[in-house]
């Protein structure tokens, strides 16, 4: 059941914006690997956390780029 919910959240974030989805996928991969080394059952939690953190990072970066583009005009 956890895997289904993880896939649903990832699909929802992926459909929002391709740039943010790329960040989510990268973060989920890194978090999953890190969670795997922590212990049993932590890979899924690491993937979810990695996706959320990377999504936040790329969203903040996109807002900064948008503000910089507005300032130039």
TrEMBL record:
Keywords of the record: Signal
Signal peptide: 1-21
Protein name: Glycine zipper 2TM domain-containing protein
